[in-house]
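Can't paste images in this forum, so I'm doing it all in text. The chain is below; anyone willing to post the predicted structure tokens underneath?
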Amino acid sequence: MGIQEELKTLSDKIKQYRDEARVQLHLARQDVKDEFDELEHEWDKFRTRFDQVMDDANEVSQEARQTAKKVGEELKTGYENIRNKMK
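Text version of the structure:
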């Protein structure tokens, strides 16, 4: 699987976790809501970088793609943690 496919899969998984967390957020405690709000800020930054990588895939360095992947993995873990806290 190429890096673009990996990033697309990662982005889709983050979106899924994010959507699930948003649905259950109204039941969450304030500390979980604060954590979610922080992740939303990071999500916006990730999406900007992701869009750049996907648009300029041939011109973007391997380092930039790996950085985007690392940030995405951290976001996925963050949303997954929130989702697990609300179960």
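The mean pLDDT is 83. The helical segments are 3-24, 30-55, 62-85.
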